[in-house]
Amino acid sequence: MTANPSLSHCSPMIRVHPRHPRSNSLLIRAVVCVAFVSLCVSLVASAVCADPDARETPRLTEINVKKLGPVAPPAPDVVRTRTLEWVAQHGVTDQARLTEIGKLWAWTDEPPAPESLLERTIGSFALADDATRAFVDACGLQNAPLLPPDAKLLTQDGQGSFYTANMSLFYGRYLAHRQMFDEALEVLETVPLADAVDPASLLFFKAICQHHLLMKSEGLETIEQLLKNTEGVPVRYSTVASLMQYDLEALRDRSLDEVARKMTDVERRLELGRTGEKVQKKEEEIILTLDELIKKIEDQQGGGGGPGGQANRSSSPANDSVIKGSTAPGKVDPKKFKNAAEWGDLPPRARARAKDQISREFPAHYRDAIDEYTKKAANRPAAGGK
Predict the structure, then answer these.
(1) Whole-number percent of the chain with pLDDT over 90
(2) CA–CA separation, 41 vs 25, rounded Å?
(3) How many CB atoms are located within 10 Å of the residue 200 CB?
(4) How far is CA 341 from the centre of its chain?
(5) What contacts 36, CB < 8 A, 6 or more positions away?
(6) Could you state, in order of their start, the residue ranges of all structural domains in the chain?
(7) Taking the model in full, what pTM does it have?
């Protein structure tokens, strides 16, 4: 790893252009108020005046994961320059705000990691623009409302690709934290890796959404890009991504495992207040898959489909169910039965053994689904005599 260049090495690159004297002087007066941020004065001036074609900004022409080569985050100095340029171009005149922005971009030791650079970029946007500040404040995770904040500012003209890309990354990450994976993925897929301050976060949260939505091939492609072709990936990202990769590789189409995951996804959507056509369609898919699985098991056990299965069937199954020699109608007194959440009214020891076996042999969401089912069954009213 190359050492971070000293502050003095950056000073000769400062160029002042006569086209923006007012913005340049305002920024210089603001940043000078902070004693240890002299470098920011030069960088702000450079951001206002530098020729856009002369900036060394890495550009990627293809964001399709399958066709991408190695991806690296932009250099901290490049991020700082582009952010301060955006601030200058939007005519910020409040000295206090400019001072706070200058503080965000002053560092004398090791430069910040991409995650921190993204937070500083979003913070600068919020300090420079009131609408952005209101939007960022509305994206809090504490006591979040059912509906996410309106993101119309992400489609406004005149903000520039750098602003739109990183604000979209910020918003997509927020939606993923809210478990709104469909909406999050829709936003994140609009972000070019070329403009993302933190490309590892962009790929990671895309993979999170694709994993939860059971998008196997797309998720594996994104994870492959993140793990093998992206620099600066935090350890926690790579660890979780590896687990998601293993999980998706083991996922089989139209399996009981897939059904359980779809049931969990439907439950998530219902908790978010989603009851539309998409949820109903997923519920229908679950029922159809379960029917297919049940029929397959019956066929394997000789219970249907072939001649052998038909040969064992009775033409009057209702009569066959009556005990021979009995004259009673075969009705059961419903008072002898009751609803219970005790796993079929098993004795405590047998119940514990069953739960332990499920915990050892099946994924965690199987036991959760069974627990949830038995709790709901316990709350159902007792059946009548009919």
Answers:
(1) 43
(2) 9
(3) 23
(4) 34
(5) 106, 108
(6) 7-256, 263-304, 342-374
(7) 0.62
